[in-house]
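User: I'm preparing a small set of examples for a lab meeting where we compare how different chains pack in three dimensions. I only have the primary sequence for this one, and I'd like the structure in token form so I can line it up with the others. Please keep the answer compact; I'll paste it straight into my notes.
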Amino acid sequence: MTDPGRWLNVTSSIAGHPPDQPLRWARLVGGVAVVAVLVFVAVAALGALTARRAAEREAVNDALSITDILAESVLQPALDDALLSADPLISGPAVTRLDPVVRRRMLSSTLVRVKIWAPDGRVVYSDEPRLIGDVFPLGEEEQEALHQPSTEAEVSDLGRPENRFEKSVGGKMLEVYRPVWTPQRQTLLFETYSRYDAVTARSSQLWRGFAGITLTSMLLLLLAQAPLSWALINRVRRAQTEREAWLARAVSASDEERRQIAATLHDGAVQELAASAFLVAGAGERARSVGDEVSAEQLEIAAGAVRSSIGGLRSLLVDIYPPALRSSGIAAALRDLVAPMRSRGLEVSVDVPETVELPVPVEALIFRVAQECLRNVTRHADAGSVELSLTVSSDEGAPTVLEISDDGVGFDAEAVLAAPPEGHFGLRLIADQAGAAGARLLVRSEPGAGTRWRLEVDPR
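Assistant: Understood. Below is the structure token output for the 460-residue chain.
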């Protein structure tokens, strides 16, 4: 037989869900729990990051407020217009009066440097006396703060010449600047340098408060959603159970109907035809005994026709409901299933172990799939030969495999699975059964290349 193309998954295409992933209670609960934990971690991390940034902004705002308070309540009352004089003899006494105020009331373990600038970029005061009198160009931000009074903050660039003495302090520095005014309303730029560790410490303090609120809120939200999630999980579980129950009822009803039809045929038409065959055969013998050869020959032909009909009905009974499936097992049932195909002139090859021990549900699934696939061969394939094999592996975890192939006309498997024809309920039913049992039903077929079916089922 020719290779009919690649395998296509019938259970996935028709049943509507992956056959190797049946819905399981533990998997569903575990999945919901994992998703909840991932969402909690993601939201908590995002919330913590946002809280830290907000806390850092709040800490910087605190530094701005402190600088404003120092400027207005401590520095401005101590300022002297003489600070702006270029003559050291004039500015010197003003610096001497201001220096103890700054050192006693401003400098601390956190605020480590104070500078006061003239608008031309000259340092008129600093607690580092080596800076006094030096001239450095003011940046755009500092100039803007002078012309449009505001309090600003930024991380200090310790590589700039005016900040060379801050390098010895070590670590990152927060620079806050704003304008201040002398008694004669001359504008100066007041600049403080604080250790950034203070901002970090304040940020961490505020962050712990924000993070605690965020995490607690998330935990309470998860706890509030737990009953709803549990109810949804139970509903999904009930829906799955009901679906499986309806499928089992459909299969059971199909089996019961087959049994009733088989019993009616066996006890009714088959028995009556058998009796008729005996009567016709007896009449033929009596006609021959009296020398009526013509009548005897006609009666023998009629008896043969009746016996042939009985054989056809018995083959139909095996096809409808094989008694060997329950009494002799799947191997005998499969052999009985292909027997009527031989009577129709098909060449049949069967490769089935003599003894097969499988759970009853697995045997029933294998038989139903084989029965439906062989029906399709009989009705649609126009085949000359059929091959059926059943492989039961001794390796733990290996699937039991049923394969049925024919050399018939084949079909476009991808097109048919993409849009299954209306009325193909048998194929839909076995595909749904295989999917619910965690099995895989595969097909390979192309026009003119025959068809190959493959069922893979876990034997446990």
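A couple of notes for your slides: The chain has a mean pLDDT of 78. Residues 33 and 229 are 10 Å apart (CA to CA).

User: Perfect, thanks.
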